[in-house]
Specification:
Elements lengths: L1 E5 L3 H14 L4 E6 L2 H11 L3 E5 L7 H11 L4 E6 L4 H9 L4 E4 L4 H34 L20 E11 L3 H20 L7 E6 L5 E7 L9 H14 L6 E11 L2 H14 L3 H4 L4 E3 H5 L3 H18 L3 H17 L6 H12 L5 H6 L3 H21 L7 H12 L6 H8 L3 H12 L3 H19 L4 H7 L5 H12 L3 H13 L1
Parallel strand pairs: 1-2, 1-3, 3-4, 4-5, 9-10
Antiparallel strand pairs: 6-8, 6-9, 7-8
Helix pairs in contact: 2-3, 6-7, 11-12, 12-15, 15-19, 17-18
């Protein structure tokens, strides 16, 4: 609570300051004024939460100063101090919106009762202002972060406001029911932290987004000093409290947009934080990442983060082919681009929290990038095995086609044969298949065969020729060519790498 004291008697001001300090409660004395004019100047500069004002002061009495000061600091609570118990003074003070009319000399017990009432009133006002601010923002981003900048040009706050946007992201391999609990807990921590930091000099909105992330926005209204440390203090408090929630399965990352001077800029910040939040998979989870640092990352690093986070999402949604597609792109990106030294370590940490289930063997695989690739490939096989165990018939034509391919990939299956079984033309099936899966029939079949070949190379003593035959290739040369194109190494090299990894 920021307090301003206006009294023409220096001794009276010192006495009240002493009592307020004795009362404790986190009260800070923002300033003093010896007359009405000084009071108005201090209101403009300090925007206090509470002003204790003596009625009889030179140049401008307390009641006149309050009448003018209400416009300069609209949310300040007013407490009148007077040595006169005159009804007319009390009536005017109440009409001006004063919270209390107190007679001098003031006792500590009476002051503490007044402070209790003021804190309650301020908390109620703070919550109302936060809710109003949150509703304003939520109404503009209801359709989700990608559309966050649409239709906001006309809703700008008055000139002179400052904003600070934050984004909190949780990465976890926990089941879906636990994820809901984790996000509720994160939202509660953000709101609880806001309750102790918001007020008329700072408003805080906590907004759960459709993506599962949580945005928090701080607003400092026009006229409030830019040097007030509370805006930065809240961000630090939030980061400290959120990190206490982290455990062996869940980690939290905070993205900081920094200060901006307009709502339009704020909305662009929020959109960029959402767009670049996947960089945590490359730059490190469990950190506080400045948006400016994320914006400086090269395109290939941004794409690497997108592929990693999409890979985790595909795994949790049990999307086998999407997962395989992301895994292939991940392999290519890591093989063809140079990244900072900590990148591989950060990726392994992200996979540890974002995908894997914490088994001891999986922790061993996460020791290096080759082990990580092996682990991710095993997850692809697990997704496929889960699909094959599913009961019932596929729900649509393309699902039926995929179901058939996954059971007959080792035979000489063609799109013409499959189309005939489904009672449609090959051209129609080819177009529909590509539209549904994002892959051609041939590429889908090849990916599936390569993944099965990798499993055989890792778990059996079969020769490369026998593996090729088992997955549907009668030409060993053709199989070796395809395998090296997809995996970046020959089947014999892959088999050797797997054997060395197991020996370690």
């Amino acid at each position: 609570m920021k307090v301003l004291i206006a009294d023409d008697e220096k001794l009276s001001r010192a006495f009240l300051i002493s009592m307020l300090e004795e009362a404790g409660r986190g009260i800070s004395i923002a300033g003093e004024a010896a007359n009405g004019e000084e009071l108005l100047e201090a209101l403009i500069r300090l925007q206090p939460d509470v002003a204790f004002v003596d009625i009889r002061m030179p140049r401008m009495n307390g009641l006149e100063a309050i009448e003018r000061g209400r416009k300069l600091s609209p949310h300040t609570e007013w407490v009148i101090l007077s040595g006169y118990s005159e009804f007319e003074y009390a009536r005017q003070a109440i009409s001006l919106g004063a919270s209390k009319y107190l007679l001098k000399p003031l006792g500590l017990e009476e002051l503490e009762e007044v402070l209790d009432e003021l804190f309650i009133r301020m908390e109620q006002t703070s919550r109302r202002l936060d809710e109003e601010f949150g509703h304003q923002l939520l109404s503009t981003i209801r359709s989700g972060p990608p559309a966050i900048t649409e239709g906001l040009g006309q809703n700008a706050e008055e000139e002179g406001c400052l904003y600070r946007g934050l984004l909190a992201v949780a990465d976890t391999g926990a089941p879906a029911v636990d994820k809901e609990r984790i996000m509720r807990q994160l939202s509660e921590v953000l709101r609880d932290t806001a309750r102790g930091k918001s007020g008329h000099a700072q408003r805080i909105a906590v907004i759960p987004l459709a993506t599962g992330q949580i945005a928090a926005v701080v607003l400092r209204p026009a006229g409030v000093s830019a040097e007030d440390p509370r805006m930065d203090g809240w961000a630090e408090s939030l980061y400290t409290r959120v990190q206490l929630l982290s455990d062996s399965r869940t980690v939290y990352t905070q993205i900081d947009g920094g200060l901006c001077a307009s709502r339009t800029e704020l909305l662009k910040q929020l959109a960029d934080m959402h767009r670049l939040s996947s960089l945590r998979a490359v730059m490190g989870v469990g950190r506080k990442l400045p948006l400016d640092e994320l914006r400086r990352q090269p395109d290939q690093t941004v794409r690497l983060g997108q592929v990693l986070t999409q890979l985790a999402d595909d795994y949790h949604r049990r999307q086998y082919m999407d997962y395989c597609r992301e895994l292939e792109e991940l392999t290519v990106l890591l093989r063809t681009n140079a990244y900072p030294p900590d990148t591989e370590k950060n990726i392994r940490q992200y996979i540890r929290y974002g995908i894997h289930e914490g088994n001891a063997g999986e922790r061993e695989d996460l020791k290096d990038i080759n082990g990580l690739k092996t682990l991710l490939t095993r997850y692809a096989d697990k997704l496929l095995a889960d699909k094959n165990k599913a009961k019932g018939e596929p729900a649509d034509m393309i699902a039926e086609a995929i179901h058939y391919i996954e059971r007959h990939y080792a035979s000489d299956v063609t799109i013409a044969q499959l189309a005939e079984k489904l009672g449609i033309t090959p051209n129609y099936l080819s177009t529909a298949f590509h539209k549904k899966t994002g892959s051609t029939f041939t590429k889908y079949l090849t990916r599936l065969r390569i993944h099965r070949a990798k499993e055989l190379l890792s778990t059996t003593s079969l020769s490369v020729k026998d593996v090729a035959l088992q997955v549907g290739y009668y030409s060993t040369r053709h199989f070796v060519k395809l395998f090296s194109e997809y995996e970046g190494c020959y089947p014999t090299e892959y088999k050797k790498q797997r054997r060395l990894a197991e020996e370690r």
